[in-house]
Structure formats: C-alpha cells, structure tokens
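Cross-check.
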Amino acid sequence: MKFKALIVEDETLSRDFLSNMVREYCPQLELVAVASNVEEALQRISAHSPQLIFLDIEMQTGTGFDVLQQAGHHDFHVIFTTAFDHYAIQAIKFSAVDYLLKPINLDELETAVNKAVKQMEGPMPDNRLDLLLKNLNKPAGEDFCISLSTSEGVDFIPLSGIIRLEAKGPYTIFYLKDGRQIMVSKNLKEYEMSLQEHGFFRIHNSNMINLKDVKRWVRTDGGYAVMSDGAMVAISPKKKDEFMALMTKRTV
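Predicted model, tokenized:
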C-alpha cells in the first residue's frame, strides 16, 4: 500500500528537488500533487486528500501554519520543511511533529518518512497538529504542552504538570503532578535540549527535574533534591555546583 503525498513549496528548484527525492527514494509514497502557495495547497488537499504533506513553513503568500489553520481538518500527517532554524521549531518539537532543514538530507528524509508511515499505519488517531496549533497560539506566559506517545495513545501534558523525568534504559518515565506516571519509548537525552530552556535540569544521568518543584535540597549524604511528590533525587557530583547556582537564583 502506498500513501498519498503532497509537497507544498514555493521555490521551484526546492520543489523539484524534493519531488525527485520522494519519487526515487520513498517507495512507500505516491506523490499525487505539488503546490506553490497557501491557496494551491488548500485546493490540492481538498482534491486529493493526501495522507502526508511536506509543508514549507515560510512562503511568499503566507506560512505552512496558515494552511493548517484554514484546512478545516487535520486527517493527514505533516513533515515541515524550512531553510533556517525557524522560531516555531520549538513548538514543532514539543508537538512531536517532524521537520527537515533545507537543503534536505536524504537520510533525514528517509527517517522522517519511515516514522510518518509507521504512524499512519497505526490504529490510533493522531492530533499532534492540533497540539502544534495550540502551542503556536498560546497566550504569552502560558505553558507549552508536550506530547507523550504510549502504546495506549498520545497524552498532551503542560510543562508545569511535570515534576520529574527518570531514565529507564531506552525509556523515560514522566512523573506528573496529578499522580500519573507515563512511560514513553524515548531516552531522556531526547527531552533534555528542549526542556532545559523551560526550567528543567538534568540533575543526574538518570534524572531530570522541574526546578520549580524542588521543595528542599540537602547537602549531606552526597546531596539530593526533595521533590514535590516526595521523591529524593540524587545530585550528581558533576552537577552539584550548577544545581546550587540555579537554586540560589530561584530564591533571590
């Protein structure tokens, strides 16, 4: 079975280049149409009902997000394409939507397509795009949400609802303020870069904590942080000075 794909790209050379790559290296896809602007994209979506859209973020007549806002439905998967580290990349990452930086690398394209095909073959409904639009349109000062995919479905969790993360081999356990524990099949490193910009700290090789949820930190017994859920999380000797500096800033 082949999945129908649409390419939305306003630069002719980039559009032709990606089209050729998809036709030659992505046998799981059938390229049913291309579009060069927001209006054409909406027309092609209506006419062809693609299951996967390669969506340029910045176009002369608007953005890829305009396409999503105006599409009216999101029963398709998206792989964004962009020529630079766009301001919205962080929201895209939190929503677990893939993106490719131009010029597009073949290995990265194949990886993104394989991931999308796996998602499209799955039985679970996918509302990552709704989460993305929510993150993009969030009021100033409001939390991002992060999507956590499990075998049972996808949970969308505000960052303020996360107390700590714990590594379990290739898995990560999220401990939430509502008492739930969610295990996802990604390692802790994959969350470190995005979360550390939002008040989270990798306090130990196996643990990352929300600094706002540290209720007490203890210097004895090697040093540990007491979290709002009562957990006592060891502080790595290599991280102790940095942790103390961050906590001192929090109390100033």
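Residues 110 and 141 are 37 Å apart (CA to CA). The chain has a mean pLDDT of 90. Passed to J.P. for a second look.
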